[in-house]
Amino acid sequence: MSNEMKAVGLYKHLPITDEESLIDVTVPKPTASGHDILVRVKAVSVNPVDTKVRANGDEEDEPKILGYDASGVVEEVGDDVSLFQVGDEVYYAGSVARPGSNSEFHLVDERIVAQKPYTLSHKEAAALPLTSLTSWEALFERLHIPFNQTANQGKTILIIGAAGGVGSIATQLAHMAGLTVIGTASREETITWTKNRGAHYTINHHHSFGPQLEELGMNEVDYIFCLSSTAQHWDEMVNVIKPQGKICSIVETDENLNLSALQHKSATFVWEFMFTRPLFQTEDMREQHNILSHVAKLIDEGELTTTLTKTLTGLNAKNLREAHATLESGKMIGKLVLEQEG
């Protein structure tokens, strides 16, 4: 068996229009040890984090391989692995601290992996892990929303950027938890998509939130989940969050946020970064295995649906450059997946 594998990587952090921004490479095939499993990658999806890591950084001595979401088959297991065996079909979102999934084979810690939903193909499953983990952690851990329809009766959540990858899952989960969901969307197709995922109302993020909410009979919201331009929307969020309400964002900013503006409302602001657990090897790292297992169950029971909207066949540099360019256009609805040929 060959000890090399094909992958897509980069040596220089370049604009996606440059052909060297992502290139086809051959690298050593890794082997599994400890808590790691080696996965034969069947499909990957592309996320905004891929484009951010690609565009920023110093020149690399070794090819840097991106890619976080993946679905595939377990090829090999480390000595300490207890959750999986060879032949299992799995899905996961990986770690920013390790080589990514844009390769034939991929090493990943079993504690952040789950059995893929059995009702989905690999390409449908690959669309889910990062956005599901981000949404679940944000809603139920960072914002402390109970997963209980009775407890959430009459409670409202505003999801800023509801038609994107994370928004498409967060909208479904928030609806499932019994919240009244207001999603932001500005185009006819994104409004339709958002409402089809379970948003009760939509408002336009290019206009002031307050008056639009008032038209819906609301002056304020209990929760806000921000998936777009934290600094740009900051004053609007401060304005419409309910006293003692909670705001969570996933979008980093170079601008200073005026946290004091939340003081009179005793409002909470919290970050969600899906890679925190694997990055810091936290004691509760296995919680990501539990969340993905729960999500797979909801998928297989028909409660949640995959958000795959576009598939490219062939996990190669040309297709990945196209995928990154599509994401960077800012017009992406749902998720874009690349599947291995054959």
UniProtKB/TrEMBL annotation:
UniProt KW NADP keyword: yes
Location of the Enoyl reductase (ER) domain: 21-338
GO MF term set: oxidoreductase activity; zinc ion binding
Keywords for this protein: Metal-binding, NADP, Oxidoreductase, Zinc
Annotated SMART domains: PKS_ER
Gene3D superfamilies (alphabetical): Medium-chain alcohol dehydrogenases, catalytic domain, NAD(P)-binding Rossmann-like Domain
Family: Belongs to the zinc-containing alcohol dehydrogenase family. Quinone oxidoreductase subfamily.
Stated name of the protein: Zinc-type alcohol dehydrogenase-like protein
Species this protein is from: Pontibacillus yanchengensis Y32
